[in-house]
Amino acid sequence: MIVQQHLIFILYSLCASVFKVAGTKSKAKGSQGQFPITQNVTVVEGGTANMTCRVDYNDNTSLQWSNPAQQTLFFGDKKALRDHRIELVRASWQELTIRISDVSLSDEGQYTCSLFTMPVKTTKAFLTVLGVPGRPEITGFTKPATEGDVITLTCTTSGSKPAANIRWFRNDKEVQGTKEVNATGKSFTVRSSVQFQVDKRDDGVAYTCSVEHVSLSNPYMTTEVLEVHYAPHLEITHSLIIPQEGQYFKLECISIGNPIPEPVLWSKDGGELPDTERMIVEGRELTITTLNKTDNGTYRCEASNDLGTSSAEYILFVYAKDFPGPTTDPNALGQHGPDHALIGGVVAVVVFITLCLIIVLGRYLARHKGTYLTHEAKGAEDAPDADTAIINAEGNHVHAEEKKEYFI
Known about the structure:
Blueprint: H1 2-33, E1 41-44, E2 49-54, E3 63-66, E4 72-75, E5 78-79, E6 86-91, E7 95-100, E8 109-115, E9 121-130, E10 137-139, E11 145-146, E12 150-160, E13 165-170, E14 173-175, E15 178-184, E16 187-197, E17 206-212, E18 220-225, E19 228-238, E20 249-258, E21 265-268, E22 279-282, E23 285-288, E24 297-305, E25 308-316, H2 330-336, H3 340-367, H4 378-382, H5 386-396, H6 400-403
Parallel strand pairs: 1-9, 11-19
Antiparallel strand pairs: 2-7, 3-4, 3-8, 4-5, 6-7, 8-9, 10-12, 12-16, 13-14, 13-17, 15-16, 17-18, 19-20, 20-23, 21-24, 22-23, 24-25
């Protein structure tokens, strides 16, 4: 019995030894067969990049990070390259993480993590550095421009990677520009231009250049406000629709131009204002304190700037004090003239209707001609001589009331 127990113990010890050796070989095979695990990293220029290398199982084997130039950065927890921007975050048998601060475009490239088994196992991780575009600048415009000039606005931004995108806006509406991209080292310089001919509608218009890039949460913008000089344009407004004797009356000369056209000069019928006591000029306004018939005439205002001279006229007709007044402004009619097309159309319609009525009436009368008292004349038509015709006619008068035809 004792011998039997001793044999069982020996067999159990042998089995344990076999399983232990097999487990050790399996672990060694797993450590040598696996590769380090890394991830690609993207960072904005000037930011911080964390590079991590890990393994699921490590049998006391060191991990190492190398830069694109194959310079060792860290071997385990030992720093190999003197660069104050590179720091150790975590070092263990399963993980090696380093931090690169104040990343520049030159740091971009392929980094290598090595697991020092036999043979050495390596895995690559690519560090992408985004170049932030510089603030845009608009060139090509010298204030002020003159109406009719052709202007080219150019927006430029440098230092972007990848190349930035530029968009143009005229006030709030997008306009198309011509884009040009040039490489400067690892970054790009981008230019975009818009060309157009200016007129007075462009005065005060804002052209905005917007720079968009993956590194920006909001686009960079810059704006150029145009200043355009143009010749003046004048028109006259009046305070009364129906000017009447004794009323207070005001004319205002509205001028549009850049520079502002001034001074404004007033005249009447080609000469000076005849009554300066009642006709008061204040800047762009002409005031007649008390209207009378002698004020009738053509009033003119004139103003100029560096690019030209303009004028406007107003025909004043003063009505009697008790005049009820027409339904329209007679002065406005004098300024703008009658609508000849409308008058011609009305006359044409009236003539056409009149001709139609004449034709219809003529046809009606032609159809009923000679039907009045036809039976009274019938006896004269059948008589052989004049005496018989008279007798027949007198006989017919007896029944005239019955044979007559009446028109209603």
